[in-house]
Design brief:
By secondary structure, the protein is an alpha+beta fold. It is built from 4 helices and 6 strands, in the order H-E-E-E-H-H-H-E-E-E. It binds zinc ion (ZN) (2 copies).
């Protein structure tokens, strides 16, 4: 896979367009791409890596779909899929091509994370989620706590790049 580098001004210009088109949403430069429903803010990573653009559109996808809370890890996964679908629609509008490989990689990372959470630490079988932070194993009846769920972070600035 060839390395694509975007011109420095690319992200800046895209953010200008997004700010114009979505005045109700605040766009803020950060070291991590994320959607914050509380502050109605999309954080984006200003980088020459095209993944920075894709993740900005992904987080805007969460914003436009009004993603706030989730009942379970499974519904969170569905939100991730939906946010990428929305990102692809947005990409078309702004003449961006999102790498299918990147998208699948993000979703796979997410599925792996969910898989680990739902595996019983005692017997290794899959458990059922009881609440946001609790799983129960139907095989050995064990229960275990998990950290609160979070949206997938499709892009994070690598340490070396951070000032
Ligand atoms: Zn078990
Ligand atoms: Zn997401």
């Amino acid at each position: 896979m060839g390395v694509t580098i975007l011109p420095r001004a690319y992200m800046k210009n895209l953010i200008k367009l997004l700010e114009r088109d979505y005045p109700a949403i605040a766009f803020r430069q950060s070291s991590i791409a994320q959607w914050s429903p509380q502050s109605h803010q999309v954080s984006y990573v200003s980088t020459e890596d095209p993944a920075g653009v894709w993740s900005t559109l992904h987080e805007l996808g969460h914003a436009l779909l009004d993603h706030r809370s989730y009942e379970s890890d499974v519904s969170l996964l569905q939100m991730e899929v939906d946010a990428w679908k929305k990102a692809i629609e947005l990409a078309e509008l702004y003449a961006v091509t999102i790498s299918e490989e990147h998208m699948q990689h993000c979703l796979d990372t997410y599925r792996d994370w969910l898989h680990k959470r739902s595996t019983c630490p005692t017997c290794g079988k899959h458990g059922l989620q009881q609440s946001n932070a609790l799983y129960r194993c139907l095989n050995c009846q064990g229960t275990w706590m998990v950290s609160s769920t979070r949206f997938c972070r499709p892009y994070r600035l690598r340490k070396a790049q951070t000032q």
